[in-house]
Design a protein that fits this description.
- The protein is mostly beta strands.
- 3% of the residues lie in helices and 58% in strands.
- It is built from 4 helices and 34 strands.
- The protein has helices at residues 47-53, 58-62, 132-135, 411-415, and strands at residues 24-25, 33-34, 41-45, 68-72, 80-84, 92-96, 99-100, 121-128, 142-148, 155-164, 168-179, 182-196, 206-220, 225-239, 253-269, 274-290, 299-317, 320-337, 340-345, 348-360, 363-374, 378-389, 396-407, 427-440, 445-463, 468-486, 492-505, 523-532, 538-546, 549-550, 558-559, 562-573, 577-584, 603-611.
- The strands form 5 sheets. The chain has a 22-stranded antiparallel barrel. A 5-stranded mixed beta sheet has the order 3-8-9-6-7. A two-stranded antiparallel sheet has the order 1-2.
- β4 and β5 (80-84) form a beta hairpin.
- The longest helix is centred in the first third of the chain and has 7 residues, at 47-53.
- The radius of gyration is 23 Å and the shape is globular.
């Protein structure tokens, strides 16, 4: 597929509660907001969509949203990066239940989506565009906000188990409830597969085993005071093929332990007009790598990030909110292997403020500023503003947004004993977008269109002349995103998305000036349709088409475009039981998202769900 040109016609995680209503979002300003109050582009993947699609991998859900591109190094569980609007994968900020989980021990502080399975995830928000005023470092491309479920009223429980291609087993369960001042829940998930050979043309299968658990507890001492506790844990064992040179069959294995914790105290004063939150969050990522299984690790990384957060929200009148926040974080990095050890840590102190005002009926305007003080390179100040206007009570919404982003150099880039450069400056971006949302026929049809541009400077890359990292690159991304949601009859739901992303190197004097950025296809379209039959059966299909891209900065190694078709069905058996199944890559398409690495062909899975 050489060219692809297509058009489409036709809880809080950072705050004490978790948004459940699709008309409420939490990622734009870090507080619960109606969509009509937000001028930024946000896509919500809700619990019903996650269950209906039967996806095991979070990335498979993200791939159907506008502006998202991904690459994976082979089998399920392998290293996977997500790019938003053509930004680097390390410029995507990721939150899990309100905790920043980008890995401080990674080369660029990126988040590896490979071990992140849907497990007990109940909602995902994808914010596209720079938003460092609220989220700080790394929110250059945007934010992916992952949320587990909130406790059920009374008692609730769910469980499922499935089996399929390559001896793949997947099982998960969760239970939640509330009584008196306490509400909470726990969940666990298990996944294992023999996998496929990650190296293209390889014969040795690279399997993975993944265990994930989550828990949350809320104690409401009064209407004004509550305590939130949350935790998330992932353990992943992965067989992978050697990446020292061209990917090739090998016995290499890796082990990951990821710990995520949140403890927050929430206080409401002045009849709810002033709310305050003070929280401590903690992330720890342990990664060990073995050339030979069942031996001591040959090398490994440990990254931790301890954060303190304060946020106050004051609403003197219904038409205005003022947000003031302070954050302190201490990323920590340790490495061992190849006869050496490295260790480094820094401190970042941040203050930010936002104002959300509604000066006219139907108009909401947000503006903010943030300053981050980094113990190595000093200060970085970012600004942002957006507006949303509806002349007809939400049937039509016009959105405008300007955002600045910055990304602090990673500890590896600053202090690695071989390639580190302590003089690195932060990457900086400016992002602009304009768009509209149109609701028709009492919400049975919704269309959205957004045009955007982002300019990034001081982008960090490896300097082959000095053998260290440097602020070498400038990049530019511009494009269009479109989405449609249709419900022509109650039983039929159709959704679609399209994005055009022109992401190029703008580093003057570089041999790659004007080239397309690697692994970022210009065109991508996805269409899903699901139908609920009168006798209970539900059937659906998703078609995703991705255009050509290049695997390298020189644009000499092409990745051909591809089209994937997936079909699915489910049938309830009584009130509490449901059987389901799916076929992925129905046409057995051969494709690659990273040069030299394999992808799955046609594969089938089936399972059973139970609910109480």
């Amino acid at each position: 597929m050489k060219t692809l040109g297509l058009s489409i016609v036709a809880v809080l995680a950072a705050t004490p509660a978790l948004a459940q209503d699709d008309n409420i979002v939490v990622t734009a300003a870090g507080i619960e907001q109606p969509r009509d109050e937000v001028g930024q582009a946000i896509t919500v993947i809700d619990a019903k969509t996650i269950e209906t699609r039967q996806a095991v991998d979070v990335v498979d859900l993200l791939a159907t949203t506008p502006g998202v591109r991904f690459n994976r190094n082979g089998s399920v569980g392998s290293v996977t990066g997500v790019s938003l609007r053509g930004a680097e994968t390390t410029q995507t900020l990721v939150l899990i239940d309100g905790v920043k989980v980008n890995d401080p021990s990674g080369i660029g502080d990126g988040y590896d989506f490979g071990p992140l399975l849907t497990a007990n995830v109940r909602r995902i928000e994808v914010l596209r565009g720079s938003n460092s005023v609220v989220h700080g470092s790394q929110a250059i491309g945007g934010v992916v906000n992952i949320m587990t479920g909130v406790p059920a009223q009374g008692f609730g429980a769910n469980a499922s188990v499935e089996y399929g291609y390559s001896d793949t087993w997947s099982a998960k369960a969760d239970v939640s409830g509330s009584s008196g001042i306490a509400s909470g829940g726990v969940g666990a998930a298990y996944f294992r597969t023999d996998g496929i050979s990650s190296a293209a043309g390889g014969t040795e299968r690279d399997g993975t085993k993944n265990i994930a658990t989550n828990a949350r507890l809320k104690l409401a001492f009064s209407d004004a005071l509550s305590l939130d506790l949350r935790g998330y844990y992932i353990h992943a064992d992965l067989d992978y093929d050697s990446f020292f040179g061209a990917p090739a069959d090998s016995s290499d294995v890796s082990k990951l332990d990821q710990y995520v914790g949140y403890a927050g105290l929430n206080l409401s004063l002045m009849d709810g007009r002033l709310t305050q939150r003070a929280a401590v969050t903690w992330l720890r990522n342990d990664r060990d790598y073995y050339f030979v299984p069942a031996t001591d690790p040959d090398y490994g990384y440990k990254g931790t990030n301890l954060r303190f957060e304060y946020e106050g929200v004051y609403a003197p009148v219904d038409a205005a909110k003022f947000i003031l926040g302070y954050e302190h974080e201490r990323p920590d990095y340790d490495f061992f292997g190849f006869g050496s050890t490295d260790s480094a840590r820094i401190n970042i102190d941040s203050v930010y403020g936002l104002a959300i005002v509604k000066p006219l009926e139907g108009l909401a305007v947000t503006g903010g500023v943030r300053h981050d003080d980094h113990s190595q390179f000093g200060g970085a100040t970012t600004f942002g503003a957006n507006a949303n206007y509806s002349p007809n009570a939400g049937a039509t919404n016009v959105r405008l947004s300007y955002g600045e982003g910055f990304k602090a150099p990673s500890l590896y880039q600053l202090y690695d004993s071989f390639s580190g450069n302590a003089a690195l400056r932060p990457e900086r971006s400016k992002s602009y977008d304009v768009g509209f949302d149109q609701r028709l026929d009492d919400g049975r049809a919704t269309l959205s269109l957004t045009a955007f541009r982002r300019d990034t400077r001081n982008q960090i890359n490896y300097d082959n002349a000095t053998f260290t990292y440097g602020n070498l690159d400038r990049t530019r991304a511009k494009g269009v995103e479109a989405s449609v949601a249709l419900k022509p009859v109650e039983a039929l739901t159709v959704t679609g998305s399209y994005s055009y992303i022109d992401a190029r190197d703008r580093s003057r004097g570089s041999a790659n000036f004007g080239n397309r950025l690697a692994r970022r296809a210009v065109n991508q379209v996805s269409v899903s349709a699901d139908y609920d039959w009168s006798f209970g059966l539900s059937t659906g299909a998703t078609v995703t088409m991705v255009g050509d891209s290049f695997d390298n900065a020189a644009n000499t190694r092409r990745l051909d475009g591809y089209a994937l078709v997936g079909v699915r069905a489910s049938l309830p058996i009584g009130e509490h039981l449901e059987i389901y199944g799916r076929i992925d890559n129905l046409t057995d398409e051969a494709y690659a998202t990273a040069y030299g690495y394999s992808t799955y062909g046609r594969s089938a899975y089936g399972g059973v769900r139970v609910r109480f």
